[in-house]
Prior knowledge:
This protein has about 400 residues and is of the alpha/beta class. It is built from 13 helices and 16 strands. A hairpin with a 7-residue loop joins strand 5 and strand 6. The longest helix has 16 residues, at about 155-170.
Amino acid sequence: MNGPDATRKEPLRILIGADTFPPDVNGAANFASRLAAGLVARGHNVRVEAPAASRKHGAVVEEHDGASFLVYRLFSLRWYPHDWLRFAMPWTSQANAAKILDEFRPDVVHIQSHIIIGRGLARQAHKRGIRVVATNHFMPENLIEHTLLPKFLRKTAINIAWNDASKTYRLCDAVTSPSRKAADFLEAETDLTGVHAVSCGITASDYTPSFEKSTENRVVFVGRVTGEKHLDVLLRAVAKLDPALQVQLEIVGGGDLLHQLQQLANDLGIAQRTTFTGHVTDEELRAALTRATVFAIPSIAELQSIATMEAMASGLPVVAADAMALPHLVHNGKNGYLFEPANVDDLAAKLTKVLTASDSDLARMKRNSLKYIEAHDIERTLDTFESLYRGEPVTDPVTDVSVNDAAK
């Protein structure tokens, strides 16, 4: 066959397995939703297997990120040490997977974790000769705080968790993680090799940078208000800033530590200039980023940090902990600053650098953030996953931009 149709590839039947999916609010859930919607927009037949968000379960067509697709909602229970997490029954994971695979007959399965749903899908798809791609969003350090394990057992539990992840990921035809740092970390913690670094990606055009001269100094954080984010460090740093700067702090998001951090803000004497928004709409989140002066993230266990990418797409300088994948997004003096993790004084000093920067330096950092985020466009991410789904060789997208490539 000649002409443009000769190279057209047939749409795929894709099953995405996710242990967390909207209405959950976290990076893994948001990525799975955007991935599904992006693939539907490209003409693929996409379905999702995920825990039910309530007692109601079953297969239902849902709309996420502007696309409609079938979601198999599994019976789930609430994990009460966490403020919202629900989980499907581990002992039914393979039976559920087998039933869905035999009904849908996908060309490829893309699991978002190895924990419950991914475990069942990987094993049952492997048995049927169905291609399996895995993306690891898992950091046991981020989950361990929501268990009842005593501290002296946590290191052992983390080692067991990584060994368990390795067993599932060995069944997969391709394994990815959101950044090169995260991919290297996964290989170091398991016996895996050849892990691809594929950004979760964002639609940068959804966010609105502002280059207007700011009338206030506003520090913003976006994300879950929970222990692994180390927000107490941010509050203590803001309390140390020069009162003459008249800094306003906005914490956008909800979580189990909300009331505890509100009390800490009161104890530190910054309650009157600290806003805890709780859960907000996408529009409210984007507005908070647009009106901010600087984005701050004290977390030390980020495999990529979609929230930081959203801040960069909003043209914000970023002050971030020098840990895990954050140094791949934030370059000292270019689009913000890195601070020593958990060091309140260092965070306060780096925030002060941004808040007292000249108009020209601030504009330069904003432009650099916008430059860096270009490499994380969701369309590049979708291109890469489509190739992985088809078993085609891929070259990992270059997302760790050199500081020399940024705008001067």
